């Protein structure tokens, strides 16, 4: 076979290979096999030494022509395959801008915190200040200044986490009463404060008890405060929180730091002038009373001049009543399925 024929044959074979491949890797293989140092074109050119001097430039030019032609064909095919690959990739990575986006789930205040904030807003609206006290408290404020000396039997009402004999986890927010009274300048007017916060008791956790829960303390001290002021205030708060048709009732009770002391019930059903007393369902929601003279005295307030009322309510219990939650532990398990109901 003449060199020309071999070159023509080579051209035909390689062009077929190029035309039938659809892989860039394969195309590259063809290129290397055809044009590389050990490829057929190089080999043909190597055979030039055996042909006549007249033929040599003709064959040489023809070989170069074939090589250039194949090079061009390879380039063209490469561009074509790259273009196909790019289009395929673009199609695969296409973004459908009309698809719904990923939902953000912004958090929200915990249901207990919501109740506390609602109470804060109500009391701020009635001219109260919001006071804070430490959760790690002195025995002195938690008990002694609340008229509960060391051996007082009523200390048993609140089983206590002691840290040292004088330092404890506060069992109630009542110590904030003593702390604010001590600091208050009565020449500037009445003291009206609420103090929300966490309290701790050595209780075994069950559906209605938690070793840690919340209280909102309330205290009003001025010159002419009566039990009617206490009742009016609590009625207003209960109606704001539970609804206009709810009533409250006071029952005599005992707390060492108030005298007289009351427990306050809220009606669970709606009440109007036609409701018979025996049809009202009462639920206990808080403790309250007129501040004991000893408590005033110990905080440096003259009980002959000043007096007032105090109350302590449990937002956990309020939340349970308001939303029909029957297990207090739900508030502390941090299960978002439970908590997100209260958005
Ligand atoms: N501190 C009382 C308790 O935890 C509640 C209370 C507060 C009662 C203020 C009367 C006055 O049980």
TrEMBL record:
Homology family: Belongs to the class-II aminoacyl-tRNA synthetase family. Phe-tRNA synthetase alpha subunit type 1 subfamily.
The enzyme's E.C. designation: 6.1.1.20
HAMAP family tied to this protein: Phe_tRNA_synth_alpha1
Chain segments annotated as coiled-coil in the UniProt record: 67-96
Cofactors (names): Mg(2+)
Family matches, as CDD domains: PheRS_alpha_core
Binding site for Mg(2+): 259
Catalytic activity: tRNA(Phe) + L-phenylalanine + ATP = L-phenylalanyl-tRNA(Phe) + AMP + diphosphate + H(+)
Gene3D superfamilies documented for this protein: Bira Bifunctional Protein, Domain 2
Domain of life of the organism encoding this protein: Bacteria
Keyword terms: Aminoacyl-tRNA synthetase, ATP-binding, Coiled coil, Cytoplasm, Ligase, Magnesium, Metal-binding, Nucleotide-binding, Protein biosynthesis
InterPro entries, per database record: aa-tRNA-synth_II (IPR006195), aa-tRNA-synth_II/BPL/LPL (IPR045864), Phe-tRNA-synth_IIc_asu (IPR004529), Phe-tRNA_ligase_II_N (IPR004188), Phe_tRNA_ligase_alpha1_bac (IPR022911), Phenylalanyl-tRNA_Synthase (IPR002319), tRNA-bd_arm (IPR010978)
Protein name per the record: Phenylalanine--tRNA ligase alpha subunit
Domain (Aminoacyl-transfer RNA synthetases class-II family profile): residue spans on this chain: 111-321
GO molecular function, one term: magnesium ion binding
């Amino acid at each position: 076979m003449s060199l020309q024929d071999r070159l023509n044959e080579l051209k035909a074979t390689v062009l077929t290979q190029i035309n039938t491949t659809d892989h860039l890797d394969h195309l590259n293989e063809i290129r290397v096999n055809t044009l590389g140092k050990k490829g057929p074109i190089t080999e043909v050119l190597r055979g030039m030494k055996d042909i006549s001097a007249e033929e040599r430039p003709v064959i040489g030019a023809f070989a170069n022509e074939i090589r250039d032609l194949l090079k061009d064909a390879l380039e063209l095919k490469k561009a074509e395959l790259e273009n196909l690959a790019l289009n395929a990739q673009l199609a695969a990575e296409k973004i459908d801008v009309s698809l719904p986006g990923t939902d953000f789930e912004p958090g929200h205040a915990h249901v207990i915190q919501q109740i506390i904030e609602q109470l804060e807003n109500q009391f701020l609206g009635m001219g109260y200040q919001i006071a804070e006290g430490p959760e790690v408290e002195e025995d002195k404020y938690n008990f002694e200044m609340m008229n509960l000396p060391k051996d007082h039997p009523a200390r048993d009402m609140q089983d206590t986490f002691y840290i040292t004999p004088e330092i404890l986890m506060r069992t109630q927010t009542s110590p904030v009463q003593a702390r604010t009274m001590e600091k208050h300048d009565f020449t500037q007017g009445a003291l009206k404060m609420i103090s929300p916060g966490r309290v701790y008791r050595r209780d075994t956790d069950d559906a209605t008890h938690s070793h840690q829960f919340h209280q909102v303390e309330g205290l009003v001290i001025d010159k002419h405060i009566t039990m009617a002021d206490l009742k009016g205030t609590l009625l207003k708060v209960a109606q704001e929180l539970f609804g206009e048709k709810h009533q409250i009732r006071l029952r005599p009770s005992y707390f060492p730091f108030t005298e007289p002391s009351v427990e306050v019930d809220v009606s669970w059903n709606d009440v109007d002038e036609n409701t018979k007393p025996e049809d009202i369902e009462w639920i206990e929601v808080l403790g309250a009373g007129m501040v004991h003279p000893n408590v005033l005295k110990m905080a440096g307030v003259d009980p002959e001049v000043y007096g007032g009322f105090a109350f302590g309510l449990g937002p956990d219990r309020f939340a349970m009543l308001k939303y029909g939650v029957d297990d207090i532990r739900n508030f502390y398990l941090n299960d978002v399925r439970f908590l997100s109901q209260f958005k």
